[in-house]
């Protein structure tokens, strides 16, 4: 279930763990340098005290903020340090200050952006939090855009991302559990959940799965997503939700879900995830419920269209032409005069061409990517029709399919639809409508077997929970959504009081 890596030599681990500072400044610095292999970004700055080098500051230049070192560390040592004075007596004005005598712990502090102060004849150093460097500022998400609602998105800083969530949930019940994953990367990971709202056993299950991971390095949230997801076998459907929006994650926490944040990645994971979560845009809750319900139904229909339409077109024109009205059949037949390929080949050719154009638009610079994908699609489509390679109806069908896939809120689910679409086209080309229906039935059976941290993927459809249908295909008013989704919420199921009903009752009594 989990990918494991052979552990390091126990003698090497024990040797590093047993190493401690000996009190000889030059020898202690040499050990640190040897551990880093004389890396160019390891800086050693000596502070002279009474014409002797009795104290030194070590840090990795690529991970620290120089102004903090100069203002809080170097200035304090120059002004107040005296020879053979205990370093613990100095008052460094940094956020964190830790004493350490272990070489291994000191290396960890340096790699986290701390500065290490070592002194002559002192067997312990002082690690000071001076982490910094260039980081991307909080900005608007380029993937999950909204017309109305917050514009902030996560960046690559874990503490910044936790702060963005806490600014939306001002409660002491928000639990944050941090750990490090990756033997070489030592990537900080945080697990968030609201006490009383989240199920305790689910929170512990998430912690357990993360703690079992043994890997060299974690560079993005997808690493965790593929390792900790339920063993469902192969599935094209995503079973863990991913988002860059703090408001989306805060909304999931309020429902009883668990968020997993990662240092170095703006993508935050949300578990457990059900099919309704991928078909919902957070903007649905920033619009009036009637308009939001219309948009949710429209997106659901467009998603279904993007999956089924090409296969239905292939089955209809290949095996079931008697179902097409005669005037329409004559028009379609006239368009295909001179086309040398079968319907299925036409559709596959246009689908693959469109996928290439979409991928090219993503990889090109933003200023020309959109223009190339749009103009390229128009030019190639028109050229293919004029050359007699495809029919006009095929171009229209593929275009409608592409537009429908763009309406899917979740990019991961849209990718799944693209893969399933090719399978349904193949089945329709071989067996016609029977193959298409067989593919849809098989997909439904597959979806009923999926689990996300033990929660059925099709909840509240299967198993059936009528109380949660008001937030699946439509969006009921806020005053009607008093209960949290019972498939994920813990003891505290109620999220809204019955004040609206009480107000109506009081008005009737007054009348």
UniProtKB/TrEMBL annotation:
GO terms for cellular component: plasma membrane. Keywords: Membrane, Transmembrane, Transmembrane helix. The keyword Methyltransferase does not apply. Pfam families: GerA. Residues 489-511 are annotated as: Disordered. The chain crosses the membrane at residues 298-319, 364-383, 389-407, 419-445. This is Spore germination protein.
